[in-house]
Amino acid sequence: MTNGIGRAASALLTYGLLGLMAFLSVFPFLWMVLGATNSSIDIIKGRVLPGEFLSTNVDKFFTQVNAPLVFWNSAKIAILATVLTLAVSSLAGYGFEIFRSRHRERLYRAMLLTLMIPFAALMIPLFIMMGKAGLINTHIAVVLPTIGSAFVVFYFRQCTKAFPSELRDAAKVDGLKEWQIFLFIYVPVMRSTYAAAFIIVFMTAWNNYLWPLIVLQSNETKTITLVISSLASAYYPDYGVVMVGTVLATLPTLAVFFFMQRQFVQGMLGSVK
Amino acid sequence: MSDLQLSDICKSYGSLEVIKGVDLDIKSGEFVVFVGPSGCGKSTLLRMIAGLEEITSGDLTIDGERMNDVDPSKRGIAMVFQSYALYPHMTVRENMGFALRFAGVAKAEIERRVGEAAKILELDPLLDRKPKQLSGGQRQRVAIGRAIVRHPKIFLFDEPLSNLDAELRVHMRIEIARLHKTLAATIVYVTHDQVEAMTLADKIVVMRGGVVEQVGSPLELYDDPANLFVAGFIGSPKMNFLKGAIEPGDGGQLCVRLPDYGGAKIPVQLKEAAPGTPVTIGIRPEHFNETGPAALDLTIDMLEHLGGETFAYARHGKGDLVVIETKNGRGLKSGDCIAARFDPDSALVFDVNGRRLR
After folding, report:
1. Are residues A95 and A7 part of one domain?
2. What pLDDT is recorded for position A5?
3. Residue A204 domain-assigned?
4. B10: which of A220, B38, B57, B152 fits an S-S bond (Cβ 3.0–4.6 Å)?
5. Per-residue pLDDT tens for B89-139?
6. Given an 8 Å threshold on Cβ–Cβ distance, is B87 in contact with A170?
7. Is the CB of residue A59 less than 8 Å from the CB of residue A151?
8. In 3D, which of A116, A122, A67 has the Cα closest to residue A247?
9. Helix (H) or strand (E) holding A23
């Protein structure tokens, strides 16, 4: 009897905590969607119910913002950054794991240490470098500093540990060169790892704010995150319009996650079984 | 079919020498098996033949051509790996034709060769499946098929059956033997399973610590081992080793006295051995019988009845266990005292360094 009550109390506590966590996770998203249907005043008053201002907010958003251009800018940067990051970092992760050398571990640890340097310490030198290279106010300047990601290299190296060395040997016996082994064997075998990394890198690149804010200076080059930020920091911000922008900005990352979630989970568990 | 020669082959990782001057001559069409305990260097030697490990020194020749620095794909070899190493993203057909595609072989020819290999290995219904949809035995057949389509001069097998269950292993062993007959191919095969070695090989190479201990046909190694290691490694259950010393026997014949076995004296035929020399005599479990002139007084510790035969594990006092194989052991019980008889001519004698004394 006592056991039964104890178990029920424990279940109640567990479900209560999980419910609270779920609410904390879902509520901001719900509030954002409901906010897009309300007026700015309603939002400030804290209304969390569907409103009647959706079409007004959408009209205002598309009037105030050159949406196709900013979405295109964001997409261009996110896709370019993702493709280049995956190409460079997966090659580096593969190389760190497969090729032995005396300095491999030292070099790898030095690379991991760069994870501890905050971006705030890098942005001024980066800005100066981009300025000298004549890249300020270009999308290349946004993409370049992100493609050699220590975290993604680390992730690929860890996943490469599960890549069977016998596959590489078999490919060598079959006549493949190192680059062919990487391209025709490693990449397809590790596709779940790539999918998981794609989601992480794409979301980071799409949501990137601070560096684009510094390096992109004209309206023609700005991304959706910068535009939403400027809408929110206007003298009289229209929060309904901000919410519409935020909902629209969230959709591409949601779509990517939705279509690749299976591979994402597989990639997190390990591509090779 | 092709000849393979290894001349004074060495392999070192820094200061660690793992293969220490191997000389070997493999004739065209031979089935050669490398056996030895884990870490003896048999897989490393195979990988050196394949070109997957660099040769530190020595010469590797195939058909008289030095191959030390030749790319694995250009050596005319094909390799079957322990874990099959099938490309998981390709179908069976693609896996089998992959090397040919890279070698620039025409599509029609690839199809023909894949079809031919699939027919030999009965893989036709599986050609469009991915490796994950196959059983262990089917995967192994695909791995062999992938090797066959290349029409290699030499097949290399690296413990190909160790991932299979016992029943399938026996089945695949027969398949590989059949394949060797059909293709009349030169095969170099690595295993730690001496049953595989004994049943498949024309020639067995026994290795230990990077050194070839003995090369010979399975029965040569069984009947006439060069040293204690080979004698113990070949044969299952392994040979019994009893420590003793040379003593002069009756009529001038030498004998070995076994102090741990009640001072039993075993007459031996040796050309030269000084009395008092410490030696080890080896008796195979199956060489015990009911009529032999020599005998050991033993007490049975444990019995294993396998139906056709019985293995009795017996000892004298607190001495080492002696394994006895008998066809008439059904009536035996633990604790029985027996006189384990054998023919002293079947006993082998080894010196303190493990070298065979003749």
Report:
1. no
2. 86
3. yes
4. B57
5. 999 999 999 999 989 999 999 999 999 999 888 899 999 999 999 998 899
6. yes
7. no
8. A67
9. helix A2-35
The DSSP letter of residue B204 is E
Is B79 close to A169, i.e. CB distance below 8 A? yes
Nearest to A173 among B79, B82, B87 (CB): B79
Q: What is the pLDDT of residue A262?
A: 82
Consecutive 10-residue runs of chain B (358 residues): their mean pLDDT?
A: 87 93 94 94 95 95 94 93 93 95 93 92 92 91 92 93 85 88 91 90 95 96 94 92 88 85 86 86 92 89 91 89 89 89 92 91
Residue to test with chain A: of B43, B47, B52, most A Cβ within 10 A? B52
Which residue intervals of B3-122 are DSSP H helices? Answer: 42-50, 92-102, 107-120
The DSSP result for B141-193, as a single string, is HHHHHHHHTT--SEEEEESTTTTS-HHHHHHHHHHHHHHHHHHT-EEEEEES-
Structural domain harbouring A102: 54-268
H-assigned helices in A53-190 = 54-64, 67-98, 104-113, 119-132, 139-143, 150-160, 165-173, 178-180, 187-189
pLDDT score recorded for residue A200 = 92
| pLDDT of residue A273 exceeding 90 | no
Looking at CA atoms only, how far is residue A190 from chain B in angstroms? 10
CA dist., res. A190 & res. A181, Å (int)? 12
* Contact check, Cβ <8 Å, A167/B85: yes
| Residue A151 forms part of a structural domain | yes
Gap from A175 CA to chain B (nearest CA, Å):
5
A48 lies in a domain? no
Q: Are residues A13 and A142 in the same domain?
A: no
Residues in chain A: 273
**B49 interface with A at CB cutoff 8 Å:** no
Looking at the structure, tell me whether residues A22 and A146 fall in a common domain: no
Chain segment A83-93, per-residue pLDDT in tens: 999 999 999 99
- What is the ipTM metric for this complex? 0.84
Angstroms from A193 CA to nearest CA on chain B: 14
Q: Is A105 on the interface with B (CB under 8 A)?
A: no
Interface check B313 vs A, CB under 8 A: no
Q: Is the pLDDT of residue A271 over 90?
A: no
